Amino acid sequence: MTMKSYSARFEMMGTFIDLVVHHQNGEQLIKDAYIQLKDYATRFTVNQADSELMRVNLNAGIAPIVVAPDLFELIKLGKHYSEDVSTPFNIAIGPLVKTWRIGFQEATVPSQDVINEKLALVDPTQIILNEQELSVFLSQKGMEIDLGSIAKGYFADQVMQRLTEAGVDNGYISLGGNVLTIGHSPNNPNNAWNVGIQNPLSQRGDVICIVPLQGMSMVTSGINERFFESNGQRYHHLLDGKTGMPISTDIASLTIVSKKSVDGEIWSTAGFLPSASQSISYLNTIEGIEAVVISIQGDVMTTDGLIDQPINSTLLFAAS
């Protein structure tokens, strides 16, 4: 018997979310996933003053705030990776994000004095966690946690977990380009969910290659996603917590293929190193992480676990 397929697209968290579920009870499961995502979007955002995360930020330098176990775990995970000074991943980057406002109409290049002032507030070691009380304390007034570089991957993993627990063997979750697949695609001849990587150097919709996924996640970050121009100079949204400026790099986009979407989120930012070749070398050392890096010169580079087949522009996993 063919399993019924259900799909939905809706707007949330400033992006489009697509869900595909092969299951007899798929319609209800998609409704449940919508409610689950709405809950995360409400609690984990910095764009609502009364969110759970903003309570932590508004009490910076004042008092520890007890949070729900899931938010605590995500902040703990983010803090762990943020403390690795060799990468640009940093959940304490909030004060700089709020200052630049890239992606909003009022985006502006801050003065060096303002940047210096904010740089003093983006130290992830000053996020104080209490495991017993599940409390989070930002030790300096003005500090802000921003989970934009990790949250959607976490949300996708949690939705997938609930769907698989409900008996879904085949499905697809896309949170604005963060793609997570469950099992295989019953509709494609290669049984894979075929997901395209945008060419970051041309117009939207121009796919540079296709990655066939089965039970894997794919996350892309790029300097062309959010940016603004001022005095003939382009400023992208990936900020460097060491300089306070957009990351200086020859990488145009970085795509991570991993088992968990939260890992893809982390490494699609953490891997934004000064050069594409540095990024590939570094990511080759991270277990369970594969990457496709496209440089601003248009070069496509992959980690060792992916075989590039330029004939059909398809990337396949090396036999492991």
Task: Give a structural overview.
- By secondary structure, this protein is of the alpha+beta class.
- It has two domains: 5-28 and 150-317, ApbE-like domains (T-fold, Roll); 52-138, ApbE-like superfamily (T-fold, Orthogonal Bundle).
- The protein is 27% helix and 28% strand.
- The chain has eight helices and 17 strands.
- It has an eight-stranded antiparallel β-sheet with strand order 1-2-6-7-10-13-14-15. Strands 3-5-4 form a three-stranded antiparallel β-sheet, covered by helices on one side. Strands 8-9 form a two-stranded antiparallel ribbon.
- Strand 14 and strand 15 (300-302) form a beta hairpin.
Topology as H/E string? Answer: EEHHEHHHEEHEEEEEEEEHHEEEE
Main sheet characteristics: 8 strands, antiparallel
**Briefly, what CATH class of the largest domain?**
Alpha Beta
The number of distinct structural domains comes to 2
Shape: globular
Short description:
This protein is α+β, with helices and mostly antiparallel strands and 320 residues long. 27% of the residues lie in helices and 28% in strands.
Notable characteristics:
globular, alpha+beta, T-fold, 320 residues
Ordered list of secondary-structure elements with their pairings:
Blueprint: E1 5-12, E2 15-22, H1 26-43, H2 52-58, E3 65-66, H3 69-82, H4 94-100, H5 112-119, E4 127-130, E5 135-138, H6 151-165, E6 170-175, E7 178-182, E8 193-198, E9 207-213, E10 217-222, E11 227-230, E12 233-236, E13 251-258, H7 261-270, H8 276-283, E14 290-295, E15 300-302, E16 306-309, E17 314-317
Antiparallel strand pairs: 1-2, 2-6, 3-5, 4-5, 6-7, 7-10, 8-9, 10-13, 11-12, 13-14, 14-15, 16-17
Helix pairs in contact: 1-6, 6-7
